[in-house]
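I am still getting used to backbone structure tokens and would like to learn alongside you. Please make up or recall a protein chain and show it to me in full. Would you write everything just below, so we can both look at the same thing?
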Amino acid sequence: MFIRNIEIPVEKCKIFCNIDETVLKDAFNKIHFQIKSFPKGSIINTRNSTCNNMMIVLKGIVKTELSDLKGTTVHIADIFAADTLAPAFLFGKSNFIPVDTLAKTDVKLLFIPKSEIYKLFNLCPQFLTNFLDLISTRTQYLVYKIRFLSFTTIKGKLAYYLLKLSEDQSSDIVKLNKTQSELAEDFGATRTSVARVIKQFINENSISVTGKAIELCDKKKISEYLKYEDHIHSWK
């Protein structure tokens, strides 16, 4: 859909779903917004920046990262075209973006100021419903990510990742949507280390790998790594 000669992929944006196109166009004609472009590798927001705008990715991929006290950079998530960036931090007393956001590719973002978001809530009640649903979903993902980052070993992280993937796909045979390099980035480890742990899981007959498909042959054994992590935390 084009609004003021700007193409916005509303049919793919969850924040705009179930809103009549005519209603949405009329609403956008009554608010202020900006379009900004960022070249690949550039910084969009630094950690603890104040979040004063709803940011929607119109083109490209934005990656979010977090550095620990040792200086190790951990990949949090990739935000793709039609997704919103940090919507849960737009409101509240501490509306600071908790991660660094960078342009993984050339990126184009739609910025809607917080004051204009209030107007959209009034002009499009469905927009408010979509927003609440969106931040609830993101909060659930953050709970998963916090649990994931609490694991100190690659085995624990891989075990949790595979079991969660199995739950999400409702199958013991899961399809990986990431390369080993991307998994290593998520795990805060090297690709070699991740490959070594995957090989260990295979040798233990915990999993079998065929292309990008992984079969969880022994979930009980995989779950043991989570119990080991819990033991480490309780010992500490």
Q: What stands out?
A: The chain has two domains: 2-149, 154-235. The first strand starts at residue 2 and ends at 3. Residues 148 and 161 are 8 Å apart (CA to CA). DSSP finds seven helices and 15 strands in the chain.
